[in-house]
Amino acid sequence: MTSRKHVSVLLILAPVLLALACVLPSTAGLEATAQGLLARATNALGSVGGLGTSWGTIEAQATHILGTAISGAEATLSGMLTKQAAIGTPPPPSADPETASISGEILTTTSERPALRLFAREVVLGRVYSVEVAQGQPTFTIDHLPAGTYVVVAWYAPQGVAGGYTSDLTLAAASVEEQDACGHALVLVKVEAGQAFTGADIRCWGANFFTWITPAP
Q: Residue 188 belongs to what domain range?
């Protein structure tokens, strides 16, 4: 009877230890222990081979207990590893927390959209940042801008007209009066680090915004 109990215990412990060793690489020592238990169980099986039906009952019980133990261990360990992975994973960083961006729509009076250049001029230091806008593209974004206050202008370079982000809603400044009004209607855009300003729509085409394109000396 004692031999059968020992064999049952060995049959239960050895596979459980093997399962733990597979799930947790840091417990590789469990594998050697489990292998030794399996060897002992195999030797013990040879000495109890004549137990007949009673041994079959013990084996069936051991198999049932073993399956339950392994399933429970794997589920517990899987949950622990998942929780630990979640705790150890930092949140994704923002796109560019150190700089800002300004974007908007290029408003025109026609369906034609030639390639142009967008400029954001920082009004305190006079630094100018620019981006090329491809032909047919209706929107723009100027990114990697340091925090500051900007005006935004556009130019159909090298010989076309200029436009800007203005409080004046005129699309095309045809008269001198309209050009003058547009030239004094540029909106100051203040952005902080990490901010994405939207809605800087370009209009007032034909006004003189060229002084804002040239960087300060």
A: 100-212
